[in-house]
Design goal:
Rossmann fold; DNA-binding; 341 residues; DNA-binding transcription factor activity; Lambda_DNA-bd_dom_sf; LacI/GalR-like_sensor; 434 Repressor (Amino-terminal Domain); transcription cis-regulatory region binding; alpha/beta; six-stranded mixed beta sheet; six-stranded parallel beta sheet
């Protein structure tokens, strides 16, 4: 029985203008609910602060002993990118210390985001970690509203002041990479940037551009520095590098915002008959398999395992009630020099 003053399902239904059965199906993820009705019910739930009874009983008696790792990326990306494997391994190791179970939620952008939020809202987990956050996800804002203990691996592009997060200083790291190319004597430096809807993509581009003006103003072509965007995948790095070479055949340096994209860029350079580092010096970012590239890749370390561990401990501190608000951890970058530059 609900405590006095606790919002009820009937009140949610009345506020949403739907039947009690429809409100129940919408809250519990049922399929026979129109988009309009579901949106009205979700707005009513937020307005009233309603918590479904099963979740309320769970919170009152015991925790679920599980934590969600939310990855808003396509399945094939999650299982092919070494960043995610290293992240999940580190998260699971920290949770195992507390005998907590990891629940993986693959939330592809679009209709699956609503399903993920309903799952988190209904008390199935004690906390959440978000990896690979995009602007359109709005996950920092949503999780902040839910009050669910959470933390982000990587700085959220929106709502970073509302949640805990752990990241490396991507601006400073990109500056290091670009400065290395300048010190090597490169005079026409291009950049394969990451997605513009992610903080890492924005920050690494900002660091690249920041390193250029004072050191190399005469080398910037009309219209600014040579930049093409990829999506942190190998195929996108190859395509972006090919576009750069077509537009700027005199490139002698290339900073690539991830090692996977750099692997693709190396393939594009080889196809164009450019030697590395003889014709074009290349620097990547992440240090995830960079030593297995041909040639081995000079790169900036993005310590995925340490970031995941830090974020997990930030989330656990919130779960224990020993921390609150938008704490953050920002690690300094480190450059690893190999044969590509």
């Amino acid at each position: 029985m609900d405590a006095p003053g606790t919002p009820t399902l009937d009140e949610v239904a009345r506020l949403a203008g739907v039947s009690r059965a429809t409100a129940s199906r919408a809250i519990n993820g049922g399929s026979r609910v129109s988009d309009r009705a579901r949106a009205a019910v979700e707005a009513a739930v937020r307005s009233l602060g309603y918590t479904p009874n099963p979740a309320a009983r769970t919170l009152a008696t015991r925790r679920t002993d599980s934590v969600a790792v939310v990855v808003p990326e396509p399945d094939d990306r999650v299982f092919s990118d070494p960043f995610f494997g290293r992240t999940l391994t580190a998260v699971n190791r920290v949770l195992a210390e507390r005998d907590l179970q990891l629940v993986l939620l693959l939330a592809r952008p679009g209709e699956e985001e609503g399903r993920t939020l309903r799952y988190l809202r209904n008390g199935h987990v004690d906390g959440a970690l978000v990896v690979s956050h995009h602007r359109s996800d709005h996950l920092a804002e949503h999780l902040g509203e839910l009050g669910l203990p959470c933390a982000f691996v990587g700085r959220p592009i929106l709502g970073a002041d509302r949640v805990a997060w752990a990241d490396t200083d991507n601006v400073a790291g990109a500056r290091l990479a670009t400065q290395l190319l300048l010190e090597r004597g490169c005079r026409r430096i291009g950049h394969v940037a990451g997605p513009s809807d992610m903080a890492a993509g924005q920050d690494r581009l900002a660091g690249f551009l920041d390193a250029l003006p004072d050191r190399l103003p005469e080398a910037l072509p009309e219209g600014g520095a040579p930049v093409e965007h990829g999506d942190f995948t190998e195929a996108s790095g190859e395509a972006a590098c090919a576009r750069l070479l077509a537009a700027h055949p005199d490139l002698d340096g290339l900073f690539v915002a991830s090692d996977l994209m750099a692997r693709g860029a190396l393939r594009a350079l080889a196809a164009a008959g450019r030697s590395v580092p003889g014709d074009v010096a290349v620097v990547g970012y992440d240090d995830l398999g960079a030593d297995h590239c041909t040639p081995p890749l000079t790169t900036v370390v993005n310590p995925a395992g340490e970031l995941a561990e830090r974020a997990t401990r930030l989330m656990l501190a919130r779960l224990d009630g020993s921390a609150s608000g938008g704490d953050s951890v920002l690690l300094p970058p480190r450059l690893v020099r190999r044969a590509s530059a």
